[in-house]
Amino acid sequence: MLLDSFEPIHGVLLCEGEDIDPSLYESEVDVSGLSPEDLEEIRKLHASDTAIDKEKDSIELRLAKLCLERNIPYLGICRGSQVLNVACGGTLYQDVERELSKKHSKFDDRKNGVYVQHINYEDYDGHRHVVNVVGKTPLHHWFKESMEAGEGKMQIRVNSHHHQGVKKLAQRFVPMAFAPDGLIEGFYDPDAYNPKEGKFIMGLQFHPERMRGPDSDEFDYPGCPSAYQEFVKAAIAYKNKLNSSASVLPQSLKLDGEMEKKRKKILRSFSIARNIYTGGLGGGLHPIKESELEAGAEFLESNTALSLQQDNRLKQMGATVRNAGSYKRRLKLNEERERLARNVMGKMSVEQLSDLLAFYHMMGKICSEVVERKLNAIVNDIGS
């Protein structure tokens, strides 16, 4: 898989880019209500943003989901925040100006402070609008002093250069800031936020790193660099946690002569069973003694901690086989199942196959770790 080339991943920062393909988040129940004429006008007005890149969408969504599965620190800025929301089942406004402004049409928007200009092509870095910050969130913590030093309002002014935004926020997230028109400008996962412990899952619609004065390196607010500082802190902590986990792996057990013979006998039993499973009985194997398969069978039968699924899988491999003839019939059944599986997978998309492969790769790793842990526990019990 392409994502394997990124490993090891200690943190992901995704920033701006083109619009996300609407088919990835919009259902028949949750439609934009935009007419074909509206969509055509949007494409003309925002030509540089509306050129969909499906390959980029696929890669970035898979990357975001990987971070969510492994709790890898993730910071999404602008499009990156939208990717994060869509990856968790949220939706987007295809055009904030046309969809969101309809809710405020009964107001004199500008007089009531409801109207918000979210994009200004003539003033990319200089354009700002107010956002209302939610208390007791990371964003509040970072900008608290600036808000108290001002008029005491829970507000800051942020840059803005986007025509899309979060419509329905995914259930796992909590908003951190709203524009006056109600658009969510920042969100995070409170259950996955503790930078010191390597936890950081957050999305910001604005660019704190670009909130500076003209021809100046000075930030609008002292809190502007905080999102990046905390993200880096989380990435370093996550990396250290991975390294620490790797360094405390149990050392190889030293077995006495009798235990070592027993271990080799069990391993040979599994090896024979594997060869039967992968090559059948007629693959030029040496004659198999029933006692050689018995060793693996006895080991499995004594290990009652195995789940039913694991036990069935190992039986399928032949580890508990005593009658080679009956196992040969099972092999034929497996061949039929394999043929059916190939037919089904042949109809799946590349993305579906990639997700399926990633799932079984993860399950394989988990199974290997659990089996190794159980083997060590059994050997320790026998040795004591």
TrEMBL record:
Cellular component terms (Gene Ontology): cytosol
Protein name (database record): Uncharacterized protein
Organism the protein comes from: Malus baccata (Siberian crab apple)
GO molecular function: hydrolase activity, acting on carbon-nitrogen (but not peptide) bonds, in linear amides
UniProt superkingdom: Eukaryota
Pfam families xref list: Peptidase_C26
Coiled coil: none
